[in-house]
Amino acid sequence: xxxxxxxxxxxxxxxxxxxxxxxxxxxxxRNWGGLAKRCAAAGRRVVAVDMRNHGDSFRxxxxxxxxxxxxxxxxxxxxxxxxxxxxxxxxxxxxxxxALSDAGALRRLIVADIAPVAYAHTHQPYIDAMRAVDLSxxxxxxxxxxxxxxxxxxxALRAFLLQSLAVGPVRAPRAVLPHFLAVGPEGAxxxxxxxxxxxxxxxxxxxxxxxxxxxxxxxxxxxGASDYLTDAHHLGVRRLFPSAHFATVPGAGQxxxxxxxxxxxxxxxAFLG
Length: 273
Hints:
By secondary structure, this protein is an alpha/beta fold. It contains eleven helices and nine strands. The protein folds into two domains: 5-117 and 207-272, 3-Layer(aba) Sandwich (Rossmann fold), CATH 3.40.50; 124-201, no CATH class. The strands form two sheets. The chain has a seven-stranded mixed beta sheet with strand order 1-3-2-4-5-8-9, sandwiched between helices. Helix 2 (65-78) packs across helix 3 (90-101).
């Protein structure tokens, strides 16, 4: 099934290859509107996707990188046969998996603050916290924010998670809604398949064994205050991506595109241009 997409048309002539953007875990295409507008101003069509089990895209029990890479490959092919790809965090791993397994339509690759390695931490507590929210008592996001506060003390992280909470009328009859989509009386529901993301958490944190390398142009962009992509990862990155360049957004954490949108956009534009 195709991924849901938000497309931003270029300002003026469409002179550059399109850019496809793949968000990270718990994210959505809507998180990337600012970068999309900046890139479109340079004469480029930008297509931000909702990854599987996120936003308005389809739900599936599987959420492995081979599956996500195949989803992205379909988008790139449908964008005219040649496109640039930017992936952040989970989306960055999916983008790397595509480059290594099905790079026919890929021109340039940008990986934002992630490395091709397995990580030891887990995001399961955030899923548990979202599951614990009593949707029957939620009629506005502020109520969900209070309910999340114990499990997610960080206000900025709560605000990010709450971008995936929809509140309001549900267009589809409740009787035909998918079984995993819990909906409160006021229409509150998570636009995340929490069950599938929980079941696949180990795979999301892991890195699959993929043979070979991709020698195309690649930029690995790290947040200066993040430990997801550090100098210690560079050698492993170069084994898989021998033409990789590395850059850092000073002071930014893992959500570098949101914390430092100007420097992030400048680095992306310079590399793609």
